[in-house]
Amino acid sequence: MSDWINYYEDNKQTALKRIKNMALSAGYSSELNCWVNKYLDPFSVARTIAKERKESLDPFFRIRMEAEKDLEFTLLRANKRDRSNCDIIFFESNLLLMFNLMLKHIRTA
Questions:
Q1: CA distances (Å), 26 to each of 4, 29, 64, 95, 97, in order?
Q2: Radius of gyration of the chain from Cα atoms?
Q3: Which residue range forms the structural domain that includes residue 72?
Q4: How many CB atoms are closer than 10 A to CB 38?
Q5: In the predicted model, what is the mean pLDDT of residues 103-107?
Q6: What SS3 string covers 40-94?
Q7: I need a labelling partner for 3 at 20 to 30 A (CA). Which of 13, 27, 40, 66 fits?
Q8: 102: Cβ–Cβ under 8 A, 6 or more apart, which residues?
Q9: How far from 108 is each of 34, 52, 60, 101, 103, CA to CA, in Å?
Q10: In this predicted structure, what is the pLDDT of residue 2?
């Protein structure tokens, strides 16, 4: 495996561990886990882009919009206590940043 794939796999595993160690509701934690497994997995994202190339002129834009929308939908599972923690808001921002960096790397590779 190339170094950049290992780097993004490490990011994914670190995010999953962080979710597990945060005091989040079960539903919200489950939704975040699903998001991380779908959008921080370089193999999954590459497969999705390959499929989208057949249907879309800009598959990178489409998957970026889908990832942002899906992350917003995870908030529907968050309870008041989940949303009152400023660490989770910062963490969600970092998840999206990691996704966008990986997407940029896949686009240039």
A1: 32, 5, 26, 19, 24
A2: 14
A3: 3-108
A4: 15
A5: 91
A6: CCHHHHHHHHHHHHHHCCCHHHHHHHHHHHHHHHHHHHCCHHHHCCHHHHHHHHH
A7: 66
A8: 8, 11, 40, 42, 45
A9: 26, 17, 11, 11, 9
A10: 78
**Number of domains within the chain:** 1
What confidence tens digit (pLDDT) does each residue in 19-67 have?
Answer: 999 999 999 999 999 999 999 999 999 999 999 998 888 999 999 999 9
Q: Retrieve residue 44's tokens.
A: 């999954």
Identity of the residue numbered 100 = N
Q: pTM of the full predicted structure?
A: 0.92
Taken as a whole, the chain contains a residue count of: 109
Percent of the chain residues past pLDDT 90, beyond the cut: 76
